[in-house]
Amino acid sequence: MRKQLKRFEAFLFLLKSMLSNRQFLYVSCVLVGISSALAVIVLKTFAHSVFRFANYIDRIFHLPYSNSLLPVIGILLTAWVVKKFLDGSIEKGTSQIMIAVAKNSGIMPRKQMYAQIITSSLTVGMGGSAGLESPITITGAAFGSNYAQKYRLNYKDRTLLLACGVAAGIGAAFNAPIAGVLFAIEVILADMSVTAFIPIMISAATGALVSTIVLKEDILLSFRNELTFDYHNIPYYIILGILAGLVSVYHARNFRKVEHFFSRFKSSTYKKALVGAGMLAVLIFFFPTLFGEGYESIKALSSTNPGILLENTILEKFKSNEWILLAFIGVTMMIKSVATGLTLGSGGNGGNFAPSLFVGSYLGYFVSKFFLLTGIDKDLPISNFSIVGMAGLLSGLFHAPLTAIFLIAEITGGYGLFVPLMIVSSISFIISKKMEEHSMDIKNLADTGTVFTSDKDRNILSTIELSKHIKANFATIPDTAKLEDVTAVLSQTRQTIFPVTNEKEEFVGIINFDTIRPIIFNSFQTKYTALQDVIEQPKDTISYDEIMETVMEKFEATGYDILFVLKNNHCLGYIEKSDILTTYREKLKSLRIE
After folding, report:
1. Which tens digit of pLDDT belongs to each residue from 99-157?
2. b (16+ CB within 10 A) / e for 518-552
3. Which residues cross the membrane (predicted)?
4. Cα gap 320→169, rounded to integer Å
5. Rg of the chain's alpha carbons, rounded to an integer?
6. What is the pTM of this model?
7. Domain annotation for the chain: domains and CATH numbers
């Protein structure tokens, strides 16, 4: 196997020498698409097999004990793998891809090619209440990035193949190539030219094709009911869109609270995993539909017998009572964020893509069923609302309305609900964007100023390192000096602004040549003017650990051309605005993806 792989690599190097860069890129995006699709097949097959196994056990014991036990085992195994084989840490969420694009020149760690597959299959495959799509996109991105590094492709092609891996992963996971393309463009790459579409489309189509050939349809989330749109239902879709936006914000904030709680957990890795998994087990015992991705329950909501969701629960004998079923669905919808937070916060691996579809489907069902049971409207199509609700939550959580619209349109096998999809997704996005500036996956990064992939200027500034622009060859003036001494220093340097330091070499202010010019050219004033009388306090200084965005804001606010950099009130040097702008222009020129 190893020899065959070496031969294939040698063949690709030979092919690269024979083809043009563009032609080799097209070959590469097909190979990246196939690799991403194979990762999807492994993950989806494993997760589906465990789900069927859990259902088989349930039919024997008639209680959801196995559903509660399996996630505990899965999360503990994940924690063990991370600690034993992955250096004690694993990066979660699509934000890792955004960091690679914005700050690391499209380079992703090699371990991401396999780490996500192993850990997420253990967590989600064994019932953790999260999704596989985020690990799939990270794996696909890692395939694209490392392939480009292997065959020595430049930054532009490396970043493009990274996006190809993402598109192929989404395309394969849902058999939705258009959604894969849009997700890669809308979420991962905020700035790209039209010519970059072609490789991404090829990868997405390849991933979807391989997935369709290999995976059985029941493993994928798909609907084959004939769905039609009745314009009389528009007011109800508007209400659904508003609620979807509000629930999106609730889900994101609640998830972060639970995850942050575990981030402050001081106990050992295994104790944290056991506590979180134990709490998750309790939730799954009472709400078995929280087990795993939840796609089976989404399909059940769109069927003619949603009462099956109450099977193997303490409410099973009430499954024919529509109000109790509605209450069960409403509560499950609201605690899904807690279940996902427990899964990921305690040490499991997964994402929020599947949970967003889960919550959206439950919300759509709840809204439509409520209006039916109350008699406000007796003709609302419940399955339509369940399906459209998924687009609303996906749009609100990830700030990706186009991806949401086309993903749901593709998995339903047609565009009969295109108008309500646009209505619900747009309203949800507007409300969520108003209440949360950043999407769920990059909120934490945005709060720390680490990366803003939707803002090209901030992306570029975040890649400029302050330390590399500090100039340390500068003269200082001790606060015990006389003005005649400053005149002597001025005659030996072209420096015009001098930091003044005390006996502890702490920064106390500056002397500006332009300010003291009238004094030093008058010998009388020079002799009888105290140094303290000409020391100024600068409008601002820079801390050595500040991000470049705030540095540029300080340049703009002060109007200075140079600013001094301080660490513990000691002057490390200064930076010039012109240097930063030169670096910015160079990076802007190289970062354009074509």
Report:
1. 777 777 778 888 888 888 888 888 988 888 998 888 899 999 999 999 988 888 887 88
2. ebbeeeeebeebebeebbeebeebbeeeebbbebb
3. 24-43, 63-82, 160-185, 197-215, 236-253, 273-291, 323-347, 353-373, 385-409, 415-432
4. 39
5. 29
6. 0.78
7. 2-219 (1.10.3080.10), 231-448 (1.10.3080.10), 464-590 (3.10.580.10)
